Amino acid sequence: MANVDLSNLDLKDLKALQKDVSKAIKQYEERRRKEALAAAEATAQKMGFTLAELTREKTKPRAASAPKYRHPENASITWTGRGRKPKWFMEAIASGKSPDDLLIV
């Protein structure tokens, strides 16, 4: 590795050197990433898979939550009890109702 006497460089040269070093680091990391990816793909193929098959997440779709609370005057408006409280729920609580009064039985 070359030793560079940084004390003899002016600000412009130091910034140019910094930019060159950052670029070289990014190129090195990208090259290593590609090498690792190629090695992983080769290993997966030896075992009869593609890398995409091994890295694909298999998740089950979430089931919709059942409503837990019902609007006191309009039964078609409901809330699961998750997430942000709806305005009608907060208004009902402010008017003296308890959350238990709004539960769907």
Shape: elongated
Low-confidence stretches: none
Mean pLDDT: 92
**How many extended strands?**
2
Rounded to the nearest angstrom, the radius of gyration is: 31 Å
Measured by DSSP, the beta-strand proportion falls in under 5%
Number of domains: 2
Model description:
The structure is a single chain. By secondary structure, the chain is mainly α. The protein folds into 2 domains: 8-55; 69-102. It is built from 3 helices and 2 strands; from the N terminus they run H-H-E-E-H. The protein has helices at 11-46, 51-55, 87-94, and strands at 69-70, 78-79. The protein has a two-stranded antiparallel sheet.
Which features would summarize this protein structure in a list?
single chain; 105 residues; mainly alpha; two-stranded antiparallel ribbon; 2 strands; 47% helix; elongated
